[in-house]
Amino acid sequence: MARILLLENPHVSADDLFARADHEIVRIDHALQGQELIKALDGVQMLGIRSKTAVTREVIEACPELVAIGAYCIGTNQVDLEAANEYGIAVFNAPYANTRSVVELALCEAIALTRHLPEKNAVLHDRVWEKSAAGAHEVRGKTLGIVGYGSIGSQLSVLAEAMGMRVLFFDIAERLAIGNARRLRSLDELLASSDIVSLHVDGRPTNRNFFGRDQMDKMKPGAILINLSRGSIVDINALSDKLADGSISGAGIDVYPDEPDANGDPFDSPLIRFPNVLLTPHIGGSTVEAQESIGYFVTGKLMDYWRKGATELSVNLPHIASSPSVDSLYRVAWIHHNTPGALARVNQVFATAGANINRQILATAGEIGYMVTDLSGELPAHTVQHLSDSEQNIRLRVLKREY
Questions:
Q1: Residue 360 — very low, low, confident or very high, per pLDDT cuts 50/70/90?
Q2: 113 - beta bridge partners?
Q3: What is the domain extent for residue 323?
Q4: Is-catalytic flag, 208?
C-alpha cells in the first residue's frame, strides 16, 4: 500500500484508482512550497500536484521515499526534471486531456474581444445604456495567427476555420497544416498579417518573455492578443503600454508571471485598468469535463508505474509500456545511468543467481537507462542487493505479481 499526497484539488476522479488499490490518500486543497512541502511528503510515495506547487531539487533530495509525481495539468515546468532523473522519480502529466477546454476559451475570447463585449458589459454594470455597432466585427473573415501548432493550436485551427476564419500558424517544430491553415516560416510575417494572435507555447526557460515589445511592435495595428499558455512568455508591462496607446486593441490573458497560490489571495496586474482586457484566473483547462479526464488519466499513469513499472508518456524517463508477462512472478524495474555494458552486467548477476528471465526490455534517453526484467522464479535477496549497490544504479524496484 502506498501513501498518496494530492495538492491543489485535482478532480475527485483522481482518487478512484488509488482507492480501488486501498492506497492512503491525503488531500490538501492548496499549493505547498519548500519546507512545508517537504514536511507533508514524509512517508509519501506518490505526489499529485497542479501548476502552483514547485517541486524543487531541495524537495526531491529531502524526500527519498518519493517514487513518482503526477502533474494534473499540461505543463511540468514546476518540477525540477533534472533532479527527478538523478533520483529516479518518474514524472507524468496530462498533455492532451484539457485541449478542448482551452480551445473553446480561446475562441470565446476571440469573439468577445472582436465584439468589444468586455467594455459593453462593464458599461451596463455601471447602469449606462450604450448600444452601438462601432468597432464591433464578426470573426468570420478575420485572420487568426496561431503561435505554437501542437495539440491545442492545431485543434483551435480546425474550429476557427469552421467559423470562417483564415488561419495562419508558426511553430519552430515541423508541423503539418490541417485543413486550409497555412504555415508561415516567419513569426514576423504572422504577426503582421493576423487580426488575432493566440499563443500556445510551452513554459521552458528559453521561452521566458518570448513575446515582448519587439513582437508586439510587429503586430498588425489594432490586433488582439490572447495568451492561455504560460504566464512567463508575455512581457505584461510591454502589453500594458501597447494597450494604453491603442496599437493593440484588446487582450485575453489567463496566465500571469506571478500567480496567487490559493483562492481568495489578492491579485494585482498592470492589466486590471483596461476594460478591453479579459482577465481570467488560469482557468483555460478548468472545466468539469477536462478536470475529470485529467484525474483519471494521470492517476492511471501513476498506478501503471507503481504496479507494473510502465513509463508510457512519462515526461522524463525512457518509455516502456508493456505489462509483466503472464507467467512472471517478479518484475525488476531498474533506473540506471546509461553506460556501456549495463545490460550485460545485469544479466550476469541474474545468471549467477540462477534466475529465469522471461522477458527483458531496455530503453534509454540521454544519460538515463530504464530496464525491466520479468522473472518466472524466485529472486534471491542478495541479487537485488547486488544491483542496488552497483555504480550504475539510480533506483531499483522489485514488483511482485498481483494476479
A1: very high
A2: none
A3: 318-396
A4: no
